[in-house]
What does this fold into?
Amino acid sequence: MKFHKGDRGKRTGFLKGKKNRLDERQESRLQKLEARCFWGIYVFLVVILLAERALGFTARETAGELAAVILASLLAIGGSIYQGIWDRYLRADIGTNLRVSLVASIASGVLCTVVLAVRLEGKSVPLSRLWVVFPISFSITFGVCMAALTVCAFLYKKRIAKLEEQADEEEQADEEEQTDEDQ
It folds into this structure.
């Protein structure tokens, strides 16, 4: 939903015609609460998903949690890109993408190796087979994460350019309107 000058409180869609009864302080607190709830539930789902996979649950048994995490991720990413927001602290560049991909890949490699070691405990499996898991998991995660971040950074930069163009056009229209009123 996009607010323009003089639009505060107007809604479209389901709440069309309903006025926002919150003041700016309440609106800010509500947004913070909603964000904390979303990220709390998201982290909780990820922890549950990882715990279930570590305990040996099958992909079919964890499909619901995985679908919820993927949907929440796509909504958060899509919404952020649409609004022209990348991150509060990080820039959308190749260096950031490399660092984030590296951290995610190391975490994935360690997690997969530990989970496999726990599952194979007590079985006669050579240690050399266990260490193959880390580079495979690392490589796959790094490739997927780097590709996804690169595509998202491209879409973000494209969206920022469009938003800046729209802002310039609105500014020009306001200036023209102001000069017409002055004459």
Summary: DSSP finds five helices and no strands in the chain.
